[in-house]
């Protein structure tokens, strides 16, 4: 990279879902845009080592489990044999297709993609250092979209060797199925990847600090979900504080004690996956030098229009407040691009869906029962089980239920929670409903195709304002 200077309307640092979507939208609105990415490929954590590769493994491992346990019931006689190398190859091809797609979109929208480490030298100037040197980018606006990295365990020194003590980055590429695995953290990442290796043959134990899995998820859904995971073979140790993770020869051990106090316990396994959350990544950006404020957790502080305390510098995605979700970052990227182009960008943070891509899936949007009780909101509940859904029976996917929460006075839907096959897709219609302030009656009176799994969503809505038909 030779020394040179170029001028832009917007320079985005980071090409994850927030960054690349912001760049594309800004380019579509007529701005001259550059994206700086420190990886060799675009797409950030999500496309390279996060959302996309994990979903490829989740789907492949689910197909393997179906072939082993369900196909015979459907009249299909097979003797499946695991070929892990080919499964990992499918994952890698999926990643390549997606990251290549981002490079194509940059070219299509005339966006300058620059590989190198970006640092804010001053408001209006980004310095990029690559393998062949450095260059300076002059710009009217800078968007920090650098995402997040593995957080580790608070107060515990964890050394990742990538083979025995691993993070989610490593857990998508284990060369063989471990006989035993300990997952530290009962959140989304730990349970998704833990379920992958469990289906492929590992004995998985989840150690979680809280007294429930899936943290902020609706309590009833969390309890039912954990029971299904136990049925699949996962073991859980809840209310457990991890005090040490140590490598012991070719294996590793985890020491933990009851959160309420008591004797410590030690578990040993072939692989320990530490999945205790992520932290904002702002290392090397020069934020302190230019005076960009961050809160006590390291998140970049912004106003309602994603602007930091320094003129011309903005931030979106995992580096700012709110859930660390790719689609939340995307929406913020679109909103910021619109604002920079003189339009009125906006994100409704009350309608951000959350999905756990296990089998069955868990999906949620809006408030939980616990939140409504805490806020003193009077509400109604409607539920419907997939055991009473004809399509679910035909597919052998009757686990789980749909739960609708609506305001007791107005019937406006305040939250929807789905545990079941395809929950991540079914949650979308309820997000649309809530975006337009819809009621459970609106949803219940909307015709749904038969037979579909989504009829369970309608039945739960009917149960909220009246009575379900099929239970």
TrEMBL record:
<keyword id="KW-0547">Nucleotide-binding</keyword>
<feature type="binding site">
    <location>
        <begin position="185"/>
        <end position="192"/>
    </location>
    <ligand>
        <name>NAD(+)</name>
    </ligand>
</feature>
<dbReference type="GO" id="GO:0006103">
    <property type="term" value="P:2-oxoglutarate metabolic process"/>
</dbReference>
<dbReference type="GO" id="GO:0050660">
    <property type="term" value="F:flavin adenine dinucleotide binding"/>
</dbReference>
<dbReference type="Pfam" id="PF02852">
    <property type="entry name" value="Pyr_redox_dim"/>
</dbReference>
<dbReference type="InterPro" id="IPR012999">
    <property type="entry name" value="Pyr_OxRdtase_I_AS"/>
</dbReference>
<keyword id="KW-0560">Oxidoreductase</keyword>
<feature type="binding site">
    <location>
        <position position="55"/>
    </location>
    <ligand>
        <name>FAD</name>
    </ligand>
</feature>
<dbReference type="InterPro" id="IPR006258">
    <property type="entry name" value="Lipoamide_DH"/>
</dbReference>
<feature type="binding site">
    <location>
        <begin position="146"/>
        <end position="148"/>
    </location>
    <ligand>
        <name>FAD</name>
    </ligand>
</feature>
<dbReference type="InterPro" id="IPR023753">
    <property type="entry name" value="FAD/NAD-binding_dom"/>
</dbReference>
<feature type="binding site">
    <location>
        <position position="118"/>
    </location>
    <ligand>
        <name>FAD</name>
    </ligand>
</feature>
<feature type="domain" description="Pyridine nucleotide-disulphide oxidoreductase dimerisation">
    <location>
        <begin position="352"/>
        <end position="461"/>
    </location>
</feature>
<keyword id="KW-0520">NAD</keyword>
<keyword id="KW-0285">Flavoprotein</keyword>
<dbReference type="InterPro" id="IPR036188">
    <property type="entry name" value="FAD/NAD-bd_sf"/>
</dbReference>
<feature type="binding site">
    <location>
        <begin position="324"/>
        <end position="327"/>
    </location>
    <ligand>
        <name>FAD</name>
    </ligand>
</feature>
<dbReference type="Pfam" id="PF07992">
    <property type="entry name" value="Pyr_redox_2"/>
</dbReference>
<dbReference type="GO" id="GO:0005737">
    <property type="term" value="C:cytoplasm"/>
</dbReference>
<feature type="binding site">
    <location>
        <position position="208"/>
    </location>
    <ligand>
        <name>NAD(+)</name>
    </ligand>
</feature>
<feature type="domain" description="FAD/NAD(P)-binding">
    <location>
        <begin position="8"/>
        <end position="333"/>
    </location>
</feature>
<feature type="active site" description="Proton acceptor">
    <location>
        <position position="450"/>
    </location>
</feature>
<dbReference type="InterPro" id="IPR016156">
    <property type="entry name" value="FAD/NAD-linked_Rdtase_dimer_sf"/>
</dbReference>
<feature type="binding site">
    <location>
        <position position="318"/>
    </location>
    <ligand>
        <name>FAD</name>
    </ligand>
</feature>
<keyword id="KW-0676">Redox-active center</keyword>
<feature type="disulfide bond" description="Redox-active">
    <location>
        <begin position="46"/>
        <end position="51"/>
    </location>
</feature>
<dbReference type="GO" id="GO:0004148">
    <property type="term" value="F:dihydrolipoyl dehydrogenase (NADH) activity"/>
</dbReference>
<comment type="similarity">
    <text>Belongs to the class-I pyridine nucleotide-disulfide oxidoreductase family.</text>
</comment>
<dbReference type="InterPro" id="IPR050151">
    <property type="entry name" value="Class-I_Pyr_Nuc-Dis_Oxidored"/>
</dbReference>
<keyword id="KW-1015">Disulfide bond</keyword>
<protein>
    <recommendedName>
        <fullName>Dihydrolipoyl dehydrogenase</fullName>
        <ecNumber>1.8.1.4</ecNumber>
    </recommendedName>
</protein>
<feature type="binding site">
    <location>
        <position position="277"/>
    </location>
    <ligand>
        <name>NAD(+)</name>
    </ligand>
</feature>
<dbReference type="InterPro" id="IPR001100">
    <property type="entry name" value="Pyr_nuc-diS_OxRdtase"/>
</dbReference>
<dbReference type="InterPro" id="IPR004099">
    <property type="entry name" value="Pyr_nucl-diS_OxRdtase_dimer"/>
</dbReference>
<keyword id="KW-0274">FAD</keyword>
